[in-house]
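Long-time lurker. I teach an intro course on protein structure, and each term I like to show students one example going from raw sequence to a predicted 3D structure in token notation. This year I'd like something fresh instead of my usual example. Would anyone be willing to generate the tokens for the chain below so I can use it in lecture? Attribution to the forum is fine with me.
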Amino acid sequence: MNKTLFLKYATLGSILLIVSACQQVQAVAEPAVLTETSAEVKLELQQQIQKAVGGPLVKLADNAYLFESQIWVESAVLRDDKGRPLDGRHMDLANLFILQIEQGQCQLKHNKSGQVFVLTKAKCMAEKQRFPEK
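-- Reply from a regular --
Happy to contribute to a lecture. Here you go:
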């Protein structure tokens, strides 16, 4: 009887182990940095940011996303000929964009809206992999 009870528990334990191992693991996006940049990659980033916030293409530094996974983008302020904001005080908040990698795919996330844009030209790697000291 002890042998039968042992076999039942062993079988049950094996089944639970198999079921838990077969559960789908959900991918988690990780902060990322670009592995290299080019005019083509910069344009792709600018176009995706433009989709998220509207307006003209934003100005990005040539080294955007090479060392940090996040950048803040301020809204353009229309100014008069003396450099003063047309509508008086500028109250728009800056937008946070996070470069991330999920299942080997480089993505740009607009933090405010939650929109995620898949990047086809950009190549990136996990920020903690490139800069483990961070």
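Some talking points for your students: Strands lie at 30-34, 70-73, 95-102, 105-110, 116-118, 124-126. The radius of gyration is 24 Å.
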